Amino acid sequence: MSETSGLTFLADESCDFSIVRPLRQNGFDVKSIAEESPGITDSDVIEMAKREGRILITEDKDFGELVYAHQRPHGGVIFIRYPSYAKKSIADVIDHLVKTKGEALIGCFVVVSPKRIRILKTDIP
Q1: Given strand 77-80, what is the order of strands in its sheet?
Q2: For 1-125, where are the alpha helices, taking DSSP H only?
Q3: In this predicted model, what pLDDT tens digit does every residue of 62-121 receive, in sequence order?
Q4: 37: domain CATH number?
Q5: Per residue in 27-65, pLDDT tens?
Q6: Residue 108's beta-bridge partner residues?
Q7: CB of 3 closer than 8 Å to CB of 98
């Protein structure tokens, strides 16, 4: 069994489908807010991810505030900070991140930018 086999994800409405599709094609369970619950609040999104044991994938910086300023419990957040001109490579970057880090992403706040990936352990259960 691979280290990534049990990982599941929740793609926020802000998450581009160029990220969702390849993860699904590689066998990952990715639930999409845009498909299932468009328009729900960020608080509801982070609660859903936590309740369902999913790592949240988002491009919305408000989730950083929810995690750090408001101490919202989470199962992990991957925050994507890519300018539009660099988005072509983001799907490959996320796929590589998930495959190489696997379950080490659970409970972390991960910031993915073109030149750097920061994995920050949070004390929030």
Answers
A1: 29-32, 8-11, 55-58, 77-80, 108-113, 116-121
A2: 17-25, 33-36, 42-52, 62-68, 90-101
A3: 999 999 999 999 999 999 998 888 878 898 999 999 999 999 999 999 999 998 999 998
A4: 3.40.50
A5: 999 999 999 999 999 999 999 999 999 999 999 999 999
A6: 121
A7: no
For the record, the structure tokens of 63 come out as: 């989730």
Q: Is residue 2 part of a domain?
A: no
For 13, the 3-state DSSP assignment is coil
How far is Cα 109 from Cα 65, in angstroms, rounded to an integer?
11
Determine, yes or no, domain membership for 1: no
CA distance 57 to 20: 9
Residue 3 has pLDDT above 50, yes or no: no
* 39 within domain boundaries: yes
Report the Cα 79 to chain-centroid distance in Å: 6
Asked if the structure places residue 115 within a domain, the reply is: yes
So what's the pLDDT on residue 83? Answer: 86
Instruction: Compute how many other C-beta atoms are within 10 angstroms of the C-beta atom of residue 67.
Output: 21
